């Protein structure tokens, strides 16, 4: 069989992914097996693969592939999110390049452009995931704007509205002037930025007196409708009931009193702008103040902005400061650090704005979701540290602003038949809306043309919070076979940054709409950061191209590299050398495979004793490692699991086991040992397959004639078997002996071709059967147990057992004596420094017990080494 000398990742990956797809190994249908289900966190349809996706989806694929091999009916549902704000921004930018404004198009025309863009660019990220090896059930791919998912959204909206949980109301909202839509509180990121605090004088009506206020947003004085003082602030007691004049505007506004004012902060008096500050709005409602909105939707000033109408807010800020200064209203300015609300998506500075929006009452909805995580633990967060974050968010939840002023998305299923506040019906379709409107109004002559649907769309998360249910059509058809079989799902793998946005809301939706949790475990990965601990992003230019990495290091190499450095819940500091380590591991496996496939078995050849022992040892080693791996998977410590496999395959299997059983050059191997070795190789690649699927499948196929399954991906995962711990302990002793002899050969320039004799004074148990391993690995002709020391020999100790190798002729006695004396001086100097430390009462009395214990061990080791070197010198 012709096996390539070098592993060709690109060819292998393309070949086996196509093979898996052609044979439908990723596809799942309900059957008698237990289901294991994961739903993908749907990436934005606008997106391309980045390192965060690589980490997240590699983890999911590891979990799914392992469960598939363990006999579960594994189903990993892929899909994408329509991402209203991000996608609409992309379409608007594309149209702008063509000289088309969104405002020039009808809603339908814009939606057609959005669908064209989505069909052209959407789904790219899913194709990229295939290169990573993601074993998703691609036949089940969903998009949050699919027709059945749209029906699910409409049904849920109608249900919640009927329950009185969805309502319309004028509220102070977060307005994104770039996307021209409202945002929920969770979509606003507060960034600390340097600014200015402007001190401005307001004249008191009918007097020469002034009252001073401080503001970071001087442009908003154009919308001021009051000045507020604390009722107990004696500095302003004489101004109670009086009025002030707004600078530039000349408007007369009342001076009101409210305990909200912090007497100690700023000037002790506040300007009140109810239209543009959430706290001012509350005060305004309490004191029945006028509301004056000065901004257009794009954050330019409207007609209430007087001569600044049409200008951008930040341009106006500079100009109005100058005008205030020129007219004598500006007293002073100070540098001021403050947190500025910015849009998570567009990065635009948020404007607080009073707007009529749709809201979802959350107070009662969250109760089952709080209990599921905090009380019953039906849903477990991993790592557990995120439970407190979850608690804080959920126990301080506010009503969810679910409407967005966008075209792209699920349009709110409310239909208006009149101009009144309540002249609308909520329905799943316009036909149903017509029937409801006729019933509500008694107007049987009404037609569909008399109805107009609400212009707003729903927050993107309002569709994705249904994801584990809706991908199996559990909202529209809750009794369908798929939903009953696959729901609830098992594991959710996502980032902690969307714990509230998505995870918490899915838990809420699961209990409200399916009567059950949506998943059992939530594994919250860390974030991928650069070596400066910065989050990777396109804007910083610190994010490598994942496709380029896979082309350089192979998908298996990248998967292994990224997982070996990603402890559960901890951020990953990206280092390209990790990918190199992964590729080198793949090459190591390939070279070991070529070695074994190059062996030929001889009929009737007797199995060496060293091979029998090696097989017994590696069987125990594999089972102990498998036990450890299983424990790590239970804790979602995939990094530790992979590291254990890496060490076992690289060190124990490749460096020790294969060397122990390898036949002499050009000689055959016995059939029993070869069969056992191939069996171990197959077990190794089985437990490695979830992490490195491509190279393991390639090797499996070379062994295919002896395997129970056509493909590794559906082969049976190794099961835990009892193992002999004593074998492992004994082998560790022999490893030390072998290493010591090999080191002596190198130090003394004794050729490995020259056979040696080994004698030992046995003071503690060592199994004589294992002497066969020493002979095999060290070219030792004989191992003898002796009662006393022998002269003219190199000596070393392992434990309390003392070993002797008689001198070969080529050893230079003079040089050896000098070398041993130098070594003796070093050990004596080291011993003196340790004993000096231990004789220091202050150190002994204050150092931790473990530190003292470590120092005493150093002392004992140094004394043993000195004794051994002195014995060696005496024997020269």
Protein model, in words:
The protein starts with 8 loop residues before the first helix and ends with a helix. A hairpin with a 7-residue loop joins strand 18 (414-416) and strand 19. The strands form 10 sheets. Strands 7, 8, 9, 10, 11, 12 and 13 form a 7-stranded mixed sheet that branches. Among the domains are: 165-176 and 353-366 and 376-460, no CATH class; 189-352, Valyl/Leucyl/Isoleucyl-tRNA synthetase, editing domain (Isoleucyl-tRNA Synthetase, domain 2, Alpha-Beta Complex), CATH 3.90.740.10; 546-723, Isoleucyl-tRNA Synthetase, Domain 1. It is an alpha/beta fold and 876 residues long. The chain contains 26 helices and 31 strands. The mean pLDDT is 90.
Task: Report helical residue fraction.
Answer: 40-55%
Q: Which whole number gives the mean pLDDT? A: 90
Main sheet properties: 7 strands, mixed
Gap from first CA to last CA: 55 Å
The share of residues in extended strands comes to 15-25%
Structure summary, number of beta strands: 31
SS-derived structural category: alpha/beta
Q: Assign the CATH superfamily of the domain at 546-723.
A: Isoleucyl-tRNA Synthetase, Domain 1
Query: How many helical elements?
Result: 26
Low-confidence spans: none
Short summary of the structure?
This protein is α/β, with parallel strands linked by helices. It has 26 helices and 31 strands.
Characteristic terms for this protein:
31 strands, Isoleucyl-tRNA Synthetase, Domain 1, Isoleucyl-tRNA Synthetase, domain 2, about 45% helix, about 900 residues, alpha/beta, elongated, 4-stranded antiparallel sheet
């Amino acid at each position: 069989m012709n096996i390539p000398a070098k592993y060709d990742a690109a060819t292998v990956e393309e070949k086996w992914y196509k093979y898996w797809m052609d044979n439908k190994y990723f596809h799942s249908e309900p059957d008698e097996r237990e289901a294991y289900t994961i739903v993908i966190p749907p990436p934005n349809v606008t997106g391309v693969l980045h390192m965060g996706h690589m980490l997240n989806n590699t983890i999911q694929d590891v979990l799914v592939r392992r469960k598939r091999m363990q006999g579960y009916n594994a189903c990993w549902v892929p899909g994408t999110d329509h991402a209203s704000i991000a996608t609409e921004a992309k379409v608007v930018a594309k149209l702008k390049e063509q000289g088309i404004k969104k405002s020039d198009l009808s809603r339908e025309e814009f939606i057609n452009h959005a669908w064209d863009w989505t069909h052209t660019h959407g789904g790219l990220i899913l194709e990229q995931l295939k290169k990573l090896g993601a074993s998703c059930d691609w036949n089940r791919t969903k998009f949050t704007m699919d027709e059945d998912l749209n029906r699910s959204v409409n049904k849920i909206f109608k249900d919640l509205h009927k329950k009185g949980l969805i309502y319309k109301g004028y509220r102070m909202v977060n307005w994104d002037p770039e996307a021209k839509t409202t945002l929920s509180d969770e979509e606003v990121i507060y960034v600390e930025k340097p600014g200015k605090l402007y001190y401005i004088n307001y004249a008191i009506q009918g007097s020469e007196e002034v009252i001073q206020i401080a503001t970071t947003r001087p442009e908003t004085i154009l919308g001021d409708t009051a000045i507020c003082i604390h009722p107990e602030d004696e500095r302003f007691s004489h101004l109670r009931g009086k009025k002030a004049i707004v600078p530039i505007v000349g408007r007369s506004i009342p001076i009101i009193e409210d305990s909200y004012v912090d007497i100690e902060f700023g000037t002790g008096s506040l300007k009140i702008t109810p239209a543009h500050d959430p706290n001012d709005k509350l005060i305004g409602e309490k004191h029945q103040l006028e509301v004056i909105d000065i901004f257009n939707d794009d954050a330019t000033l409207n007609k209430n902005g007087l001569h600044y109408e049409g200008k951008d807010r930040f341009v106006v800020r500079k100009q109005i400061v100058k005008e205030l200064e020129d007219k004598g209203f500006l007293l002073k300015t100070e540098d001021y650090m403050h947190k500025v609300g910015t849009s998570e998506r567009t990065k635009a500075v948020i404007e607080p704005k009073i707007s009529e929006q749709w809201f979802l009452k959350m107070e009662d909805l969250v109760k089952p979701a709080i209990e599921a995580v905090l009380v019953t633990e039906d849903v477990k967060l991993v790592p557990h540290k995120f439970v407190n974050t979850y608690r804080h968010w959920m126990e301080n939840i506010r009503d969810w602003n679910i409407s967005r002023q966008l075209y792209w998305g699920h349009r709110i299923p409310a239909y208006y038949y009149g101009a009144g506040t309540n002249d609308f019906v909520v329905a799943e379709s316009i036909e149903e809306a017509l029937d409801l409107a006729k019933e509500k109004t008694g107007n049987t002559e009404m037609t569909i043309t008399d109805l107009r649907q609400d212009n707003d769309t729903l927050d993107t998360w309002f569709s994705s919070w249904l994801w584990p249910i809706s991908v199996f059509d559990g909202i529209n058809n809750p009794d369908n076979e798929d939903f009953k079989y696959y729901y609830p799902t098992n594991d959710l793998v996502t980032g902690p940054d969307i714990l509230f946005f998505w995870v918490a809301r899915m838990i809420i939706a699961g209990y409200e709409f399916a009567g059950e949790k949506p998943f059992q475990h939530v594994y919250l990965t860390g974030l991928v950061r650069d070596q400066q601990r910065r989050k990777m992003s396109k804007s910083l230019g610190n994010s490598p191209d994942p496709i380029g990495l896979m082309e350089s290091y192979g998908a298996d190499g990248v998967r292994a590299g990224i997982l070996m450095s990603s402890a559960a819940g901890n951020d990953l500091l990206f280092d390209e050398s990790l990918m190199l380590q992964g590729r080198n591991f793949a090459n190591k496996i390939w070279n070991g495979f070529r070695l074994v496939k190059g062996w030929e078995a001889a009929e009737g050849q007797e199995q060496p004793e060293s091979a029998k022992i090696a097989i017994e040892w590696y069987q125990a080693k594999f089972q102990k490692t498998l036990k450890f791996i299983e424990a790590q998977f239970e804790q979602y410590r995939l990094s530790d699991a992979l590291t254990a496999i890496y060490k076992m395959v690289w060190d124990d299997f490749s460096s020790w086991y294969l060397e122990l059983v390898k036949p002499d050059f050009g000689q055959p191997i016995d059939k029993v040992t070869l069969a056992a070795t191939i069996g171990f190789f197959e077990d190794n690649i089985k437990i490695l397959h979830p992490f490195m699927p491509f190279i393991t499948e390639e090797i499996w196929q070379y062994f295919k004639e002896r395997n129970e399954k056509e493909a590794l991906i559906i082969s049976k995962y190794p099961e835990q078997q009892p193992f002999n711990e004593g074998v492992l302990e004994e082998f560790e002793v022999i490893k030390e002996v072998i290493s010591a002899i090999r080191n002596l050969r190198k130090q003394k320039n004794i050729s490995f071709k020259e056979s040696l004799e080994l004698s030992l004074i046995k003071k503690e148990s060592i199994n004589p059967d294992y002497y066969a391993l020493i002979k095999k690995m060290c070219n030792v002709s004989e191992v003898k147990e002796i009662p006393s020391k022998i002269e003219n020999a190199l000596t070393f100790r392992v434990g309390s057992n003392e070993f002797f190798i008689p001198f070969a002729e080529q050893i230079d006695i003079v040089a050896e004596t000098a070398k041993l004396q130098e070594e003796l001086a070093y050990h004596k100097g080291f011993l003196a420094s340790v004993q000096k430390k231990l004789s220091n009462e202050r150190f002994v009395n204050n150092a931790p017990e473990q530190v003292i214990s470590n120092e005493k061990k150093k002392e004992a080791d140094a004394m043993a080494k000195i004794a051994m070197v002195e014995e060696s010198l005496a024997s020269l």
